[in-house]
Amino acid sequence: MNAYIEFARIYDELMEDIDYCSWMKFVKYTLDEYNKKPRDVLEMACGTGNFTRLLCEEDYNITAFDLSEGYVIHAYDKLDTYRNIRLIKQDMVRFNINKEFDMVISVCDSINYITNYSELVKTFDNVYLHLRAGGVFIFDVNSHYKLKKVIGNNTFVEDKEDVFYVWENEYDDVHDICEFYITFFVKEQGLYKRFDEVHVEKAYASSDIENALRKSGFSVINVYNGYSRELVKDDTERLTYFAIK
C-alpha cells in the first residue's frame, strides 16, 4: 500500500499534539523581521491541511499540494469553506504550478522524504523558479541528531482512543537513511483493522541543506531551533530554514 493512503484517515489524531498555531506565529514574526508581506503562497506537501487552514485564515492566496490523493481529499473536505485556497496533487521534486509566488513553505519534515542529495537540489531549484525576486522559502526538517539518535533503531508503542500502533525503526549509518515500519490497529465498529506503512526519511547534515540552497541560488539563509528563537544545539530535533531568493 502506498505511503499515507490509509494513514491519511487517522493523520489528524496522530498529529494532535503539534502546536501549529505557535508555528504560524513564528512564521509571521520572521516575515515581519525581514519586512516580507507575502500575498501568493505555495505550500508543498500540505498533508491533510492542518497548517494550510492557518494560512487560509491569514488571507493569503494559497496553492497547496501533496503527493497523496488521500491527503488532498481530506484537506479539501477540511478547507471547503475557504475561498482563497487551491488544492492539487503534485510531487515536491517535479511540481509545476505555472505561477510565481511570494512565499513557498513546507512543514512537518516533508523535505526529509527526499532521500538523495541530487533530488534535494532539484527540489530547491524548482522552488527557486516558482518564487518571485525577494520571495521567501521556509521549511523544516527532522535533524540528523533526531533521526539517528532519537528515532534510530528504536521501537515506539502508542495506544490512543481509537488507534494503537507499533513503530519500529531501522537506521542505515552508511546512507543516513531511517526507515519507519509502522503497524496500525484502527478501531472501526467495535473491531480493529490492521494496516502497515513504511516511510523513509533522509538524515541530512545542516551544512548539506545550506549548500543545496546556495547551489540553487538562495541567499540570507538562517536556521532556527524548530519554530522558536532558542539557539540551535547539537541535540536540536527540528530545524527550520528561512531562505530568500
Describe this structure in words.
The mean pLDDT is 94. A hairpin with a 4-residue loop joins strand 7 and strand 8 (177-188). The protein is an alpha/beta fold. The strands form 2 sheets. The protein has a 7-stranded mixed beta sheet with strand order 3-2-1-4-5-11-10, sandwiched between helices. It has a 4-stranded antiparallel beta sheet with strand order 6-7-8-9. 28% of the residues lie in helices and 35% in strands. The chain has helices at 11-14, 20-33, 50-57, 69-79, 117-130, 144-151, 206-215; strands at 40-43, 61-66, 85-89, 101-106, 131-142, 155-159, 163-172, 177-188, 191-202, 219-225, 238-244.
Reconstruct the topology from this structure.
Elements: H1 11-14, H2 20-33, E1 40-43, H3 50-57, E2 61-66, H4 69-79, E3 85-89, E4 101-106, H5 117-130, E5 131-142, H6 144-151, E6 155-159, E7 163-172, E8 177-188, E9 191-202, H7 206-215, E10 219-225, E11 238-244
Parallel strand pairs: 1-2, 1-4, 2-3, 4-5
Antiparallel strand pairs: 5-11, 6-7, 7-8, 8-9, 10-11
Helix pairs in contact: 5-7
